[in-house]
Each structure stands twice: as structure tokens, then as C-alpha cells.
Amino acid sequence: MKTIVDATNVLNQGLAAIRTEFQVDASFPPEVLAAAQQAAARVPSAHADRTASPFVTLDPATSTDLDQAFCIEPSGHDLLLHYAIADVGWFVDDGGLIDVEAWRRGETLYLPDGKANLYPPVLSERAASLLPDGPRPAIVLTVRVDPGGAGRLDGVERAIIRSRAKLAYDTVRPSDLPASFAELARRVQAAEAQRGAARVDPPEQEVTARPDGRFELAFRPRLSSEADNAALSLVANLAVADMLQAHGTGLFRVMAEPEEKAVQRLRISAKGLGVAWPDAMSLEDFERALVPDDPRQAALMLAIRRAGPGASYAPWRAGAKPWHAAMAATYAHATAPLRRLADRYVLRAVLEIANGRPVPAVAAQAFEALPAVMDRADSIAGRIERAVIDLAEAVLLSGKEGSLFRAVVTEADERGGKVQLCDYPVVARLSAKGLTPGAVIDMRLAAVDQLRRTLTFERAEAAAA
């Protein structure tokens, strides 16, 4: 982790420039805000009363757009996960002002100094958010998780819930959580390993604001509380996907297997980094054995993530089985409707199916149109994230021109390659011939352009691995 000293306020100016460049609109048109204000006053009338159930939420401490709350109870050898998802659809009229604006945005966009919400804050951070300050409408997915970690939907209903606590990843204690929380997460994670899933989360390169107004650039490994909480979303999304697939409808998250050439390049990287990868071990098993606390293994985890083809959305098609290679399963997004447009329609479909009703035509039509909308939104979010990191790296290394840096080559092509600096959380591009993935090299920082968010490195003498 490195603190960014930004005496001339370049970072804040750069973030403002990124917002302009990518047309990040944190505000909403007055008519949309007015419609949201009216929608927030709606009193639910089609919801069961589940306020007696001990739901809690678990999120980053500063989050106010809370999509999920949960409680867990035993049922013989199974565990019942009651997973309450914010009922955004209760507040949003099809074709109305809020709906049209959400289709324009696609998803919430995040920057270190704020975000651009998918829905107006009066909904996404108040009336529809599962905060512990009063009853909230939700769609409750009841997922039965067997001892082997497989889940299926036992029921879906609209319900009023009341969260008992807003728990945070970095401060939560086991005693704050339902008694079976850790066991449920263990079951789901064991099932992942059993089916050969490769959902391994490398440390994230991120920029965060500090209370003193400065920023930090860091590789942040996922906390165990985050991983366990993600298991709840995972088993719910898998169960939703199974129900949609069985009924011949839905929208799925799909991803292809990495190409064999990419796997061979990764084996070379592992050898260069000094990380043992037995010939007989698959990429999936190898990934699960890596630990983010080791800098070389963390660099390799990032290389594996970049080697994949990326995920996209696809509607159900007769005769085709949607597949997510990293999950090793059929998978759907349903558990973050405050932040992703597609989830609202997936929830709507599964609510009807589970209760013996046909999927509304508006949802079926949305499944055909959503892939283009969501892929565009995902692309913009990814480009913004990379631009923010490029900016932070430029500010962090400004004034160090002429200095030598040791780095590991993580990717190489005919034009050069990508390198991971050994002493800074920085991933950079190096234009140089003869780079070999896994090689440890020395580079000289030739130039920093904070306005263009670029670092220019030159190859120095070769370094011993």
C-alpha cells in the first residue's frame, strides 16, 4: 500500500476530468428525482410480513445502497438461507421516468470520490435500501443448501423485512452473524472446489480516499468475511439460474474457458516467478492453491484474471446451455438490483415462476435487449476503473523520473508487455523487445504525464530472478 501525496490537487482534478471524459452523471434530471420522491412514498400492499425474522446485512462500512440481507435456519441436515433482495421493482414503473433513466445508465459507476447511482439516492440509498432503520420491501429467496453445498430454490416471495444490524466486513465478529453463517459458506465453497470452479479473487488494485483527504493506491486482498458473504450470493444466483434454465427463460452470465495458448503463457509466468505448478495440475486447481499475501503469487493471480476471455450476458436459447467457466456452472445475476439493471428483471421472472405464474412479457423482452445494455455499462465501468488507477499511478510516481524500478513481466507480445512493479502496487506497460513472462527486469522511469495518466518506462539492464 502506498499513500499518494497530491500537494497540487492533481488527483481530484483528474477525477473530475475522468467524470467528464466518460460522461459520468452523478445527478439525475429533475423530473426523474421528482418521480423517485413520489415512488419512495409508496406503501407496500402485496408483501408478506417477515419483520420477525432476524435479517442482517454485511457490506463495506461506508455502503448505503444495501441490496441483500440474510438470515439462516437449520432444516434437518440442510440449511435454509432466507436471502432478502431489495425490491426495486416495487418502486419502478415499466416505461416510467425512473425506468428509462436506469436503462440509459445500466449500472452504478464507482469512483474514489463518489459514485453515479443507477437509481436516485432517495431510492437506492434510502427507501429501497435494506438499511436497519425501518421496514423495507424485499424479494426473499429461500435457498435450501444441502450438506454438499448444492442449493435449490424452495420459495420466492415479496415480503416486508426489518434488518437487525448493518454489519461491516472489517469489523464484523462471528457472534454478530447467524450461527450457521460460516457453515453455509464452507458448504458452498466446498461445492465450488468439487465441481472445479475457478472463482478465485486476486488482490484488487484500487484507489481509496482517506479521512485526511489523501488517497491510497494498494493491492487489497479480499477479507475472509467478504469471501464468506460472497458464498451466499453465489448459491442464491446459482439456484436462480437453475430455475430459469429449467423453465426456458432468463438472462445468464456466461464466460468461456481460457484458450490453451493463454494457459501455456501462464505456466511460463509461474516458472519465471518461482511458483511451482506441477504439469499434471489443472489451471483451476492451481488457482485455488495461490495465496494473495505472497507478492509473486498475487502477481500471478492478476495475470490469470487478465488471461481469461471475460464474462458477458446472454438470454436463454432453446438447445443451448449457458455456461460460466469460472463458476463451472450455469449462473445468473439476481442479487444486486440496486446496482445492476439486469438483476431487477431476473428477480421479476423468478418470482413469477416460483409462484406458478407466467413470466411477464416485459421481462422476456428485456432479456433480449439487456445483453447489449449491460455489456456497454460493464465496459464503461472497466475503462473508468483503469483510468482512475492510471491517474493514481501517475500521481504516485510523479517526481521519481530517472529512478530504477524492479518489475516482473506478467504478459508479453510483439510490441512489449505488461509488468508488475515489485515495490509499488503499479501495473505498467513497457515497450521493449524480448520480454519473457515471468522474467524479473529493471526499468527506468523516463516520463510521467499526469494529465494524460501515462507512465513511460525504459528497459534497463537485465536483473537476476
TrEMBL record:
Family annotation (Pfam families): RNase_II_C_S1, RNB
Gene Ontology biological-process annotations: mRNA catabolic process
GO MF, one example: RNA binding
RNB domain: residues covered: 47-356
A GO cellular component entry from the record: cytosol
SMART domains with a match to the protein in the record: RNB
PANTHER family given in the database record: DIS3-LIKE EXONUCLEASE 2, RIBONUCLEASE
Listed name of the protein: RNB domain-containing ribonuclease
